[in-house]
Protein 1
Amino acid sequence: MKKRKTNSKPKAKKKGRKLAGWNTLPWWRKVLRLLWVVPLALWLLSIMLVVTYKWVNPPLTPLMVQRFNQQLFQKNRPVNFEHKNVKVDDVSHYMVDCVIASEDGLFMYHHGFDVKQLKQSYKENKRGRRIRGGSTISMQTAKNVFLPHKRSMWRKAVEAYYTQLIEWFWGKKRIMEVYLNVIEFGDGIYGVEAASQHYYSKHASELTRHEAAELAVSLPAPLRRNPGNPSAYFRKRTRAIEGRSKQYGRINLDAKKEDLNHKYRKQENIIDFVKWYWKQKAESSK
């Protein structure tokens, strides 16, 4: 029997027909098609990234790239990059306790957003007061892993989107693990393992409560607050975080909702805040 010859030309013809079909479309049809194809592709990419990072540690973050470029082009600024991933189970529990005490007391309870704080910030902004930070650990993780550090309403909206995704796909323990591995602790120093070795010459698993509190205090302004050279305010703040972490007790990242304090279990979500926000806007416009 004679073997049939395979012919790849029909496939090539099909591709050619698709391309020809695109070229024959009027410009407005092309625009309409792009209007749904591009957002769909970006949405699928975001889902793929979030799902991948549930198990794979981000090799780099936008902030790491941003800081590296700043170091390259700013005079008298040394180029430095220290980063090493570590499992959260291999980090001193004092570190987890202190960052929650310092940055996000309701971390184990909220759905990614501290809605009470968001409402308070909105009210203070309306009165012309300085806006207090309402960024949770989940929001900081989303911002650091997926977005550049630029202030804009669009970036905040995308940050909220990624925050909700990681809350759904990752869970609290993975969020804390990624947070502790990517957060900035100094110029070119990323993650608790690199910070622990840089400032204390020890592994993150060996951190004391005091050392963990010092690292937690540096987080809001890591380029200005140096655990290796603490100011009087820095030491005062460190003592406050130590005391607060003792009050909170040891945080169990594996805890289920029913195991948590019933007093704080019922937390509003971002949809509740959006409804409240538009209600405030409607009342103020009357």
Note: The first strand starts at residue 82 and ends at 83.
Protein 2
Amino acid sequence: MSKFHYKVKTKTGKTLKGSQQAASESDLISRLRREGYFIISVSKEEVKKEQKTISSGKKKKRRSIKLSDLTFLARNLATTLSSGVTLLRSLELVSYQSESGKLESILNKCSGNIREGLSLGEAIEKYPNVFSPFWQGIVRVGESSGNLPFVLNRLADYLEMRMEFERKIKSALVYPVILVIAAVAAIFVFLKFIFPKFGELFKSFDIELPALTRFVFSLSKFVQNNWFIMFAVVVGGWFIFKQLQRKPEVKNFIDKVSLKIPLLGNVLFLIYIERFTSIVHIMLESGLTLVYTLDIVADSIGNSVFQKKIRTAAEKVKEGGSLSEQLSKEGIFPLLVSEMSKIGEETGTMPDVFKKVSQHYLKELNSKIERFVAAFEPLMIVVMGVTIGVLVVALFLPLFKISTLGS
């Protein structure tokens, strides 16, 4: 029998510390679970040696945090916790296996905060740039209900779906992006290197250049003399844009305009609707109240227009109103969302209803993106062909005139 020190949470969320004699760590964990406690940590003095071996032989990790890192975190935390591993030990294992050095550092700090008495939800709230309000809400629900592995599994399912969706988008955009890069590179090479050579040739002939050729030569001269300034303006403009985007009034304007852009606006609209229905489904299925769910969705939606509408709906629901009625009044949500939420309210099956709606919009979104890319590819080919064609015509018009000088 050995003496073990433990830290647990009760079903009401209260943290308790103590020590007990047990044959092994797993025996004590089983005993505490039978008593209805959520295990945070169980340790004895010699466990530190094990921690040292885990820390040794680390490979070099990258500094960024990707969606795949957070998905790995959610899935592996759910697996270790459901297997009876303590929270602190689970964090230690996951942080060690993570490919992100930054995430490993954050998880180690979270472990330190938990040892000091904070819950996991309170610990990750210190890092809002890494753990979104959606993450924070899911963890709080899991801790308060004593079913953290279940809600982390739901979170991992959602993140894996998002990863697959992003992978499809990136794969679909590879060819159009290559076309854009090729077109810009070809135009730059024409204007900076090819046209200046022909300019020297044309100067040796006493001919009047066509208006199109003179315009292209002027453009070429401008690019030659100011290409570095143009590059600096583009980079500086992007940096200024990202800084201005942090201001609420600027972001609100951009969010409004983005939804009105032809083709792209429809895709963005579906992205936000799918995100709204998916997060509502997961939060309700995890046991969160509707009002709290809407508050989290508003913080996680990523568009200020939708955020404002969702916050208004949350206030009305808090006052006793109907979600379906409020969604139909806001005017931005599709009729399907409001009508299906009405069915969910009447039958008491809101999580299942929103699951079906989110699946519907995910399929529609995939189809819309495929059509968008299918329309974008030939459009880019036409634009690139016309642009290069104009440059070639501007180059050959003087050559035709030169060829007639000797006749």
Note: The first strand starts at residue 2 and ends at 9.
Protein 3
Amino acid sequence: MSKNRSILSVLKGDFFSKKESQNYFPFLFLIILLLLLNIRLSFNAESLLKESLKLERQITSLRLTYVNTKSELMKVYKRSEIEGLVKAQGLNSSNNPPRIIDFHE
């Protein structure tokens, strides 16, 4: 019963009006400060987690873009693709192999 009365006195505010309980005020302020700090850190951790998930999705998207762009560039670097682009301009591949010019003779 004493426990119920003490909780009830705190809820009613009787606890704070007594002279004996004024010694506990610094301790209560510390507890309130720690609770507020805990709430703040929880919100901060949650926002960091959301940001981390967002960045992971961006990394996945950028990785897919990178792979796609790389495969398109590899297609362009093929000899057959280059010959097709050059033929569109009216040029043909040489049938003769290249000769090495040596200036030291």
Note: The helical segments are 2-12, 14-17, 25-76, 79-88.
Protein 4
Amino acid sequence: MESPRDRFEEFEASMEKTRKLCIEDIDKLWIEYDRHNDILYINFGREEADESIMVEDDVIVRLKEGKLVGIVVSNFSKKVGLDVV
């Protein structure tokens, strides 16, 4: 079982990795919002990720060979303070 310290160190390592990410081609940006599930998808092209890292509650970065290919934000309306009907 992981200790809180181990989880913290793992989180810090993932945050450091995301700080160094590179977006390959910003022209391929597309954004989609799933209202039913309250999820925002930000994609930088249509590549499938080979790694996903949760960088904070409800935020996942998707990587392909160390490059940022997408960001997924769950509970988006709550995170930004919107009342989505």
Note: The radius of gyration is 14 Å.
